[in-house]
Amino acid sequence: MAGYGFMGAAHSQGWRSAPAFFDLPAQVRMTAVAGRNQEAVSAAAAKWGWSRAETDWRALIDADDIDLIDVCTPGDSHVDIAIAALEAGKHVICEKPLANSVAEAERMADAARAAAERGVFAMVGFSYRRVPAVGLAKRLIEEGRLGRIRQVRAQYLQDWLADASAPMTWRLDKSLAGSGALGDIGAHAIDMTQYLTDSPITSVSGVLETFVTERPKLAERAGLSGRASDETGTVTVDDAALFTARFGDGALGQFEATRMATGRKNAFRFELSGERGAIAFDFEDMNVLWFYDATDPEETLGFQRILATEPSHPWVGAWWPTGHGLGYEHAFSHQIVDFVNDIAAGRPPRPSFDEGLQVQRVLAAIEESAANGSAWTTTEGIR
After folding, report:
1. How many CB atoms are located within 10 Å of the residue 357 CB?
2. For the chain, first and last CA: distance in Å?
3. Which candidate, 210, 238, 205, places its Cα nearest to that of 375?
4. What is the rounded CA–CA span in Å between residue 83 and residue 108?
5. Which pLDDT does position 226 carry in this prediction?
């Protein structure tokens, strides 16, 4: 694994827990984790169960005892690590968004296609696809329970930057992160809605806003943020993104991604309205899916609350008895399970790097639209 921050912790527990709860077709060995700070990466290795620590990600590529690379670094290094790993014959899972630009994502997708021809596979870490309630939503849509989907609404609301004195982190530096709320959390909403509808976003109209342009620099990291220093730095990414979208199948979408939604901690919400029904989900109540069946008798019409903790729900059977809910970390275990199963079966995993590239095109189109007075902008051919 390359990187040992917030995502490094989430992915590490995924690698550690998946083999304990699921019967995997291959043995998982947590061989090495890489990071630039020797003391910090060594501590992370000891804490999470990695056999050794490295201070250069290239050591992972060169190691004969490593078959798969998990990329959890900031976005500016995804392209180099992922392509080097694939060319070395190592499978790759890469955190979202895939890259910091369309050009980088195209190079990564090209490398993934070439590697797949040799039986080497790549996947993007859009972990929310692996929430059981989301898996159930996908199943209902595929069964035709919603009919043709007409409208899509998606919000991803956080507030960890609502305080103007919250310190700078790499997520506020465009050279490292690529974009702000748009790419960090908006990417999840874009991927999720394209996944559920099985239709690409073809054009967008967007607006971006940075409410706090100067923040204290980071003195000590903790979670997403940390302790502020006395120095200040310039924020070079957006705090909030709002956009409308058209999907290839004719559906309309409304989106919001913000890290300034006071009181909202991790409210990833979506609602899809179809001709025969609707679904609604909020990650702050992640074990619940709301389903509306417009074909029900009039006297019983209404949204049905489904607690997605039954063994028949995706991934749930390997965990706890009915009604014992799962948490944020379980989705990372599920993506490991699916990735390992796909590799063993010689089956291309999803979301693919091509799907990650499509998300990158949408992100770039939104930025272009916002820079041009919210003009409608096509995602096709965007650079």
Report:
1. 22
2. 29
3. 205
4. 6
5. 72
DSSP one-letter code for 183: I
Element (H, E) at 216: strand 214-222
- The percentage of residues in the chain with a pLDDT greater than 70, rounded to a whole number, is 98
- Residues forming beta bridges with residue 221, ordered by sequence position: 226
Segment 1-18, tens digit of pLDDT: 999 999 999 999 999 999
Q: Which two tokens stand for residue 136?
A: 């159930």
Q: In 115-191, at which residue ranges do the beta strands (DSSP E only) sit? A: 122-125, 149-157
Alpha carbon distance 93, 112 (integer Å):
11
Six-digit token string for 256:
């919001």
Please indicate, yes or no, whether the overall pTM of this predicted structure exceeds 0.85: yes
pLDDT tens digits, 208-253: 999 999 999 987 766 667 777 778 999 999 999 999 999 999 999 9
* CA atoms within 13 Å, Cβ hemisphere of 90: 24
Q: Beta strand 252-258 with 149-157: parallel, antiparallel or unpaired?
A: parallel
Q: What is the mean pLDDT of residues 351-372?
A: 98
User: Order of strands, edge to edge, in the sheet holding 149-157?
Assistant: 304-307, 288-293, 277-282, 267-274, 149-157, 252-258, 240-247, 201-209, 377-378
